[in-house]
Amino acid sequence: xxxxxxxxxxxxxxxxxxxxxxxxxxxxxxxxxxxxxxxxxxxxxxxxxxxxxxxxxxxxxxxxxxxxxxxxxxxxxxxxxxxxxxxxxxxxxxxxxxxxxxxxxx
Length: 106
Known about the structure:
Blueprint: E1 7-10, E2 17-21, E3 26-31, E4 35-43, E5 46-49, E6 71-75, E7 78-82, E8 88-95
C-alpha cells in the first residue's frame, strides 16, 4: 500500500536532509545542501526511486547517502534506504504533517 510511503521523511541528525513522496509519483528531497527532484514507483521489488541530477554543493552535516537511494522500505515511522546494489544506506524518520521542529530536539 503506497499510503504508508506518502509524506516527508527526515534525517534525525539533519532535518534539511529529507525525502518527500507525493501520491502522484513525484519525489523531492535534499541531502542537506543539494535539492533533488525525481519520481518514485511501486514495483514488484519494492518502492523504487529513479535517478536524478543534482547540484554538487557542500554543507556541514550533509548526508551524501540520501540521493544514492534507489529503493526504500517503510517500517512504521522509519524509512530504510537502499542503493542499487541493495546496500542499506541509512534511515529517515517520518515527519508528522505540520511539524517543523527538529527531530533531535527533545
